[in-house]
Amino acid sequence: MEFRVKAKLVTPEDMRRIVTRLAHEIIEKNRGVEDLVIIGIHTRGAFLAERIARKIMDIENHEIPTGYLDATLYRDDFRTRLKQPEVQVTNISFPLDEKNIVLVDDVLYTGRTVRAALDALMDFGRPARIDLAVLVDRGHRELPIRADFVGKNIPTSVGEEVRVKLTEVDKEDGVNLVEQVAGGKKK
Amino acid sequence: MRFKDGHLLGLEYVDREDIDLILKTAASFREVLERPIKKVPTLQGKTVVNLFFENSTRTRISFELAEKRLSADSVNFSSSTSSVKKGETLLDTARNIEAMKIDMVVIRHQSPGAPNFLAENLDANIINAGDGAHEHPTQALLDMMTILEKHETIDGLRVAIIGDISHSRVALSNIHGLLKMGAKVTLCGPATLIPREIEKLGVDVCYHIDDVLSSVDVINVLRIQLERQEGGLFPSLREYHNYFGITKARLDKLAKPITIMHPGPINRGVEISSDVADSEHSLILNQVTNGVAIRMAVLYLLAGGENINA
Q1: In this structure, are B156 and B224 located in the same domain?
Q2: In angstroms, rounded to a whole number, what is the distance separating the alpha carbons of residues B293 and B28?
Q3: Is the minimum CB–CB distance between A73 and chain B shorter than 8 Å?
Q4: ipTM metric
Q5: B103 plus B28 within the same structural domain
Q6: Do A86 and B25 touch (CB under 8 A)?
Q7: CB burial string B16-44: b at 16+ within 10 A, e below
Q8: pLDDT, tens digit (0-9, with 9 covering 90-100), for B68-91
Q9: B236-269: pLDDT as tens digits
Q10: Range of the domain at B200
């Protein structure tokens, strides 16, 4: 499948400001950083989680426990998808009981990944609360799930895709709106 | 992904890329085993039959746990309590079980090729859990996963397999797997227990244990079965221990420590002495833990592969 970049929606400077704002919002809603933990969903959610945790460290001078989660094993499309996704390592090295968790992902779309991640988190303990922070909300939810902290709302059509790029994996920071090139092969 | 045929019959039929994928996936599953709730819902609704025509404790429990950890439904079959006693053929047994709408079959059988035969005749995914002296692929995979705990890569590593090579499916699967991953493999044991012409697979053969120990990074010590001695293939267990047993005295002479593995069950004082089996360089119990992770990875990869042919 080939894709064409329709628009570059977030610059590296925007990204930095968004992360800063998300960090402030999280601290404000949580009324401090007591019992706060941040869990990122692989792959890009994990790096965003780290960035937010670092920013909170800058602001509050308090280290926030940060973990990563791979929700692949909890997905609901295992029986229908064409290829098994690669399973990544989950790393949550601290107890989640009675914690206020902020779950971080790059793009919120159908809500199915978040559903899977919530199920996975529940197997690690009984958190006091779970909030959801996403860099981009592109709409088209298929489940009753919403984000508590949103970096940017980007209205999209189903044929488009939102590509988040982070320097940790992609050489640059940014968010691109792409669409499939006409005549390209369908999945 | 070569898993497209949906079976794991032996490492002879699997390429390096797939072995890498299995090892990588297993490393992720290893973490699931450390969680407070050691279970994920991935294979919900899948049914796996463990078809064991030969005795087994470790392998069967390991597969059963792997199935349960992935939320599959599993059914156990052992030939001693079944219609096989009444004269039913393997094919009829398997077809009857498949008619009950199952998805995967884990088979251990005394005849080499039994899993291949089932794969040709059934629609279910077949996993070989040991067929005669042919292959035992999940054992070799868990051995490689265990090696990777101590060594960064298998490529270029020098590995010796010591003991009864002729009657060992663990040896053959390890040979295929290790060679594909780029290891240098040496076989060592009494000449009566090493098949002639096995060098053609690309391995070295050496009959002197001390020469082997001083030139390798990892040894995989095979179990010596008492029946072999009764068959006249070597004079006595004691003599075997003197010539090929892995003892602390032998290992102390080496310039550097080597990694020690054993597929179990161990005959303490025969192929390996107790102090070596329990030493810090012995990874024997890690192998058992990794076995569950490897089997979860294989079940996961095979179960998800059914649509790949499209």
Answers
A1: yes
A2: 8
A3: yes
A4: 0.75
A5: yes
A6: yes
A7: eebbebbbbbbbbbbbbbebeeeebbbbe
A8: 999 999 999 887 767 677 778 999
A9: 999 999 999 999 999 999 999 999 999 989 999 9
A10: 137-287
CB burial readout A37-52, b (16+ within 10 A) else e: bbbbbbebbbbbbbbb
Residue A124 has its nearest CB partner, among B35, B41, B304, at B35
Among all residues of chain A, which has the CA nearest to that of B298? A84
Domain boundaries, chain A: 12-161
Q: What is the nearest CA distance from A117 to chain B, expressed in angstroms?
A: 12
Interchain contact, A86 vs B300, CB within 8 Å: no
Q: How many A/B residue pairs have CB atoms within 8 Å?
A: 52
What is the pLDDT of chain A when averaged over all its residues?
A: 91
Taking only the tens place, the pLDDT of each residue in B3-57 is: 657 899 999 999 999 999 999 999 989 999 988 889 999 999 999 999 999 888 8
Name the residue of chain B whose CA is nearest to A72's CA: B42
Alpha carbon B192 to chain centroid, angstroms: 23
Q: Does residue A109 sit at the B interface (CB-CB below 8 Å)? A: no
- Number of separate domains in chain B: 2
For chain B, report the end-to-end CA distance as a whole number of angstroms: 13
Nearest-neighbour CA in chain A from B1: distance (Å): 9
pTM of the predicted model, to two decimals?
A: 0.87
Q: Which one of 3.40.50.2020, 3.40.50.2300, 1.10.10.10, 3.30.70.20 gives the CATH number of domain A12-161?
A: 3.40.50.2020
Strand partners for A108:
A137
Same domain, residue pair B68 and B191: no
